[in-house]
UniProtKB/TrEMBL annotation:
GO terms for molecular function: phosphate transmembrane transporter activity. Keywords: Membrane, Mitochondrion, Mitochondrion inner membrane, Repeat, Transmembrane, Transmembrane helix, Transport. InterPro entries: MCP_dom_sf, MCP_transmembrane, SLC25A3/Pic2/Mir1-like. It comes from the Eukaryota. GO terms for cellular component: mitochondrial inner membrane. One of its GO terms (biological process) is mitochondrial phosphate ion transmembrane transport. This is Mitochondrial phosphate carrier protein. SUPFAM superfamilies: Mitochondrial carrier. Belongs to the mitochondrial carrier (TC 2.A.29) family. It holds the Pfam family Mito_carr. Coiled coil: none annotated.
Length: 240
């Protein structure tokens, strides 16, 4: 990370650090809205349909359903962002990148990475939401030993921050291989999933860029969460 930072500054200047910001801002904004908003909708829906079914299954199903819509919204912006970051001569940003990509590849160009993007973000989202829900449950059950409603806003925020950072970190580790594959496909360093895996190397799939993702994703995920999370009736009874 340190060598990459200094190399970018030396060779391309500070502006290189902000390249592709518009695609990330709008793309991840739409993705976050769909991911968190639809998760709550699907969790309520599946809870009503499945009743007392295993709660982890409800978390997995809800997050997977929400993430499909979130990635369809994200994919066009991600395509432009990666192209702009990896090939500065391609475009300056969204405004000129969208027509250039459409002219060269058509609609397919915007969704070239949808399958590997889902391969990265579905496991990430499923693990992230489940980790968050169970972490909140664990903290109130074993650490706070009080109802959420009886805790101050500061205590609730502390639980959310701890659970959110744990969720983002665990999700990043699980999804890191697919993240490297997505970058390789978008940068056209490989034409298929198999070639991308061979070129990157199996070990590098898990380790490349992982520290950066852990530093970035954990705080970002933490900041997106309200003081929410599920606490079962059993947990509340035990803490009274």
């Amino acid at each position: 990370m340190a060598s990459c930072f200094t190399t970018l500054l030396r060779e391309e200047g500070p502006s290189a650090l902000w390249r592709g910001w518009a695609g990330k801002f709008f793309g991840y904004g739409f993705q976050g809205g769909c991911r968190f908003g639809l998760y709550e909708y699907f969790k309520s829906l599946y809870s009503n349909v499945l009743g007392d079914c295993n709660r982890s299954f409800v978390f997995f199903a809800s997050s997977a359903s929400a993430e499909i819509f979130a990635n369809v919204a994200l994919c066009p912006f991600e395509a432009i962002k990666v192209q702009v970051q990896a090939q500065p001569q391609f475009a300056r940003g969204l405004a000129d990148g969208i027509p250039k990509l459409y002219a060269s590849e058509g609609i397919f160009g915007f969704y070239r990475g949808l399958v590997p993007l889902l391969g990265r973000n579905l496991p990430f989202s499923m693990v992230m939401f489940s980790t968050f829900e169970h972490s909140v449950d664990f903290l109130y059950r074993n650490v706070i030993l009080r109802r959420k409603e009886d805790c101050s806003r500061a205590q609730q925020l502390g639980v959310t921050c701890l659970a959110g950072y744990a969720a983002g970190s665990v999700g990043s580790f699980v999804s890191n291989p697919a993240d490297n594959i997505v970058a390789s496909l978008y940068n056209k360093k490989a034409d298929s999933l198999i070639l991308a895996v061979k070129k990157i190397g199996f070990i590098n799939l898990f380790t490349r860029s992982l520290p950066i993702r852990l530093m970035l994703v954990g705080p970002v995920i933490t900041l997106q969460w309200p003081t929410s999370g599920e606490i079962t009736a059993e947990v509340v009874d035990k803490t009274l």
